[in-house]
């Protein structure tokens, strides 16, 4: 018997619909936020009033129960058995279990994230459940960070700083040889630098995936990770955004370095980016439109004569937003760009202007701030000494 044959009078519609999640905590920031316990395989979790309920297999049941992050932990095997009685000839999967849970808890439907699994969404609809897409944030409260969350983000940024310290030490010890940097007898490459940064961060409890170490023209593509030899007298962008293994919160900082001696064009580029970043940070406070923060960056760049152009081979100048939210995801609400958005007290954002000109190089400087009534509270800390002799 399908779920949609159950007597509707036995069900109570919740308004708004309660959240439903089916994901693992590594890939879903919403699931980690809701669950507050790490589980590596997709699992069911949902709200019931102010209570949070999850269904766990025997493999995870005891551990999740001990974590005490849910009000109720149910045994998956029990609910698979109940669903099998209703569908004796069918395959029992997450959809059938969720339908059985909804029946037992008098729920007609759920609110789900916009990235909820499509196949599961369709199966639940076929079983008679009403599903409502969040059309935005499933948990809007994620935007405002508590003092505990702010401390977790500080720790993430401390790990970024650990990475910069390693990079500075290696660049200091490296020696130029023709158009290469030599470190410990071998050419210094982006890959070697990334490995050294990752090793140091891993040792201190971070997960440093996809660190950017991009020099020369590679740095002119902001999300290019970097590959091959690093060269003397070229600007090198280091963008380090580790996740704290214990909490799941991220750090996200960027510094630009140069091994050798910068020329006047490079110094002007760097100083202008740093000036733009300081101007943007000074603008951040509760209620300010993110567009105005972004405009401060544009004003500094325009006054210094840096133009942005878009051609068939790509863009040059300043062609990305000024910042983004940071938390259990490395990119989350809000975005600071040309799109209007009033900054909310307690939200945490990056401020990361950059300029990119093939032939000259790329420069980006990024810090993390929390929005307050009095301005921006820095949650990141590392110096801006960028020329390394």
Please, could you describe this protein's structure?
The structure is a single chain. The protein has a 6-stranded mixed beta sheet with strand order 4-3-2-1-5-6, with helices on both faces. The chain has a 4-stranded mixed beta sheet with strand order 11-12-14-24, with helices on one face. The protein folds into 2 domains: 3-138, 3-Layer(aba) Sandwich (Creatine Amidinohydrolase, Chain A, domain 1); 143-388, Creatine Amidinohydrolase (Alpha-Beta Complex). It has 389 residues and is α+β, with helices and mostly antiparallel strands. The longest helix is centred in the middle third of the chain and has 27 residues, at 147-173. The chain has 9 helices and 24 strands.
**Proper CATH architecture of the largest domain:** Alpha-Beta Complex
Q: What Rg do the Cα atoms give? A: 25 Å
Number of helices: 9
Give the strand order, joined by hyphens, for the main sheet: 4-3-2-1-5-6
Largest sheet: 6 strands, mixed
Question: Which band does the percent of strand residues land in?
Answer: 25-35%
Task: State the share of residues found in helices, binned by percent.
Answer: 25-40%
Low-confidence stretches: 1-14
The level 1 CATH classification of the largest domain is: Alpha Beta
- Overall strand count: 24
């Amino acid at each position: 018997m399908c779920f949609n044959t159950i007597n509707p009078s036995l069900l109570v519609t919740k308004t708004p619909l309660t959240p439903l999640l089916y994901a693992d905590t590594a890939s879903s920031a919403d699931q980690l936020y809701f669950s507050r316990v790490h589980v590596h395989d997709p699992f069911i979790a949902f709200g019931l009033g102010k209570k949070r309920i999850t269904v766990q297999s025997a493999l995870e049941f005891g551990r999740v129960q001990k974590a005490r992050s849910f009000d109720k932990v149910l045994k998956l095997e029990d609910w698979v058995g109940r669903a099998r009685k209703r569908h004796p000839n069918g395959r029992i999967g997450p959809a059938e279990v969720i339908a059985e849970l909804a029946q037992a808890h008098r729920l007609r439907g759920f609110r789900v994230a916009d990235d909820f699994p499509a196949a599961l969404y369709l199966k639940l609809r076929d079983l008679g459940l009403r599903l409502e897409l969040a059309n935005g944030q499933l948990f809007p409260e994620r935007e405002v960070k508590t003092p505990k969350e702010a401390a977790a983000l500080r720790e993430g940024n401390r790990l970024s700083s650990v990475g910069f310290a390693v990079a500075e030490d290696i660049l200091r010890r490296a020696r130029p040889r023709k158009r290469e940097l030599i470190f410990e007898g071998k050419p210094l490459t982006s890959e070697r630098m990334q490995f050294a940064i990752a090793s140091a961060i891993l040792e201190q409890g971070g997960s440093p995936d996809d660190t950017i170490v991009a020099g020369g023209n590679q740095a002119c593509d902001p999300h290019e990770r970097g590959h091959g030899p690093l060269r003397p007298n070229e600007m090198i962008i280091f963008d380090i955004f580790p996740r704290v293994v214990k909490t799941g919160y991220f750090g996200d900082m960027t510094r630009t370095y140069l091994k050798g001696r910068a020329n006047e064009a490079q110094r002007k580029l760097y100083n202008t980016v740093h000036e733009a970043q300081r101007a943007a940070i000074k603008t951040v406070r509760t209620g300010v439109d993110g567009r105005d923060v972004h405009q401060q960056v544009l004003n500094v760049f325009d006054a210094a004569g840096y133009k942005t152009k878009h051609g068939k081979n790509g863009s040059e100048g300043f062609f990305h937003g000024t910042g983004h939210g940071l938390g259990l995801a490395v990119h989350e609400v809000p975005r600071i760009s040309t799109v209007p958005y009033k900054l909310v007290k307690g939200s945490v954002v990056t401020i990361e202007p950059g300029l990119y000109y093939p032939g000259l190089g790329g420069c980006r400087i990024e810090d993390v701030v929390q929005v307050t009534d009095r301005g921006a509270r820095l949650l990141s800390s590392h110096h801006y000494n960028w020329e390394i002799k």
